[in-house]
Amino acid sequence: MLRRLFLVFAMMTVVVACSSTPESSGTADEGMLTPPEDRTPISQSDVIYDDATANTGTMNAPGTQEDLVASVGDRIFFGYDSSELDTTARQTLDRQAAWLRTYPNTRVMIEGHADERGTREYNLALGERRANAVKNYLLALGIEGNRVETISYGKERPAVLGSDETAWSRNRRGVMVVQ
Amino acid sequence: MFKRILGLIVVLTCFIPALAMAQLRVDVTAGKIDPIPVAINTLIGTNSADYQMGKQIAQVIESDLVNSGLFRSIPESSFIQRNLGVNDTPRFGDWRLINAQAMVHGGISVSPGQITAEFRLWDVFAENQMVGRRFTTSHSNWRQLAHMIADAIYTRITGEDGYFNTRVVYIAETGPADRRIKRLAIMDQDGANNRYLTDGRYLTLTPRFSPTSQEITYMSYEGGKPAVYLYNLSTNRKQLLGKFPGMTFAPRFSPDGHKVIMSMAKNGNTDIFTMDLTTRRLQRLTNNYAIDTAPSFSPDSRQVVFESDRGGTQQIYVMDAGGNSAKRISFGKGRYANPVWSPRGDLIAFTKMLSGQFYIGVMRPDGSGERLITQAYHVEGPTWAPNGRVLMYFKETPTGSARKGRSARIYSIDITGMNEHRLPTPVDGSDPAWSPLLN
Predict the structure, then answer these.
(1) B324 Cβ partners below 8 Å, 6+ apart?
(2) A129-172 pLDDT, tens per residue?
(3) How many CB pairs under 8 A join A and B?
(4) In this structure, is residue A9 part of a structural domain?
(5) How many domains does chain B have?
(6) Nearest CB partner across the interface for A128, out of B178, B270, B313
(7) What is the ipTM of this complex?
């Protein structure tokens, strides 16, 4: 069974490699270049970090949002209609908790967000659920409750625009914002 | 040959009145309907100001009736009898010749600050007046006057209450999809008299009309705290509904307008509450580790329909107004959301999500008779016309070659699923909510 799966995977890799060859050898003057489907999405936190530094001109002032983004990451992602924290999310939150302990005077807002494939009111509730899942995890790690506030934006503030799972998966998120 | 045709016409003429008397009544529940041919005359006055106003009013009446899907307008250019004053007797043969089944004519008089209009509706084949009425109002209210005439005609022919003299409160959307500016806005049911009520500094969502007063309840992120607000259309004043320990959202008025039913989220859990607007007392209706939201009262105030994921996914439930005896009513495939009880009580409209598509549908309050009315990449948020015969909702469409943009538009549709019709809004629109019939 495992061997068969591996074979399928190997075949897929070959197919992907083959199909992507003509694209990479294409002429430079083509109007629209579609990125390969299997490319890992660029983390949004980097974009926000770039924007922030571009505006302020400072680099990673300790205890700031830019510092949080650059050193531990400001966001975690959720599955469809879920507020469960997976391993990756928990690792990020562990780093965020450590970061919060380094800057004990810092207060944060946890934003809960949803993708656009749900209804408006349910997504407000789901965003609230996600923000609180993050808050409860941080509190369990010993962060004081009065340092962590929550807000839900439902599906009102997508981080990535698009009509596919790649975009939706980046929008189902919990974001830590330094107050 | 000619004689034969004439003979045929005479025979037909003898038969048609009997048929037509039965016909000039539309059963709006019948589904696909052959629209009734109606001839609408410019209201006749004595000077050019009268003429201008008479023409405008006739156009609004025509557009209301045609947009309902139940009427077809016969162009005035084909009329044989012309300049029909309000007290002139119609030559019914002339109207039958152009196949009009219903005919409207009337008079208008415009004086400084005031207009008076009167109209008569005739059953052309039965040769009798179905309704005749006179209205006086201020100059600026002329559209409302026209809607009232259209409502009178609609009511007389369908036996249903009209819905043309109504307004719609909605969210006007501008800006890029990731930083949408969302403002509270209001317009007439046909898109006229559009007006913005908030300036767009704060995200504003889900406005709903009071069924009894000129008040709106909505959700706003004003001051960074998402909460339910009230907006008084007479005073143009807004007011925070109250200070609560959690986010309040999904507000809707009770049928008597005395309460707001809504959700409150606290520590990640969302339940349903009512707030008495006089005593400001908060009453909890659900207490459940699930998302309980989108509540809507039955028109007799005895029950509440809402959505909950207590069974694992979003489904529709009905409970009594005290919050007891919750019973699931949606059992089809997919997720069900946004239930809204019809003002007639007979149906519940909802949003459904299934296999990556969104639907607007209706079902009976016991969950039977589910019928899907429209489908798209994203449709959401049904709202009922006060007569319970027409729904509005919004449709969001991906735009641009990469499908990264969003265009949101408001549509109305007959509950039979016929006659989908886009409302003209100056910018994108979402979250429509229909007002009660105005006076």
Answers:
(1) none
(2) 999 999 999 999 999 999 999 999 999 999 999 999 999 999 99
(3) 102
(4) no
(5) 2
(6) B270
(7) 0.91
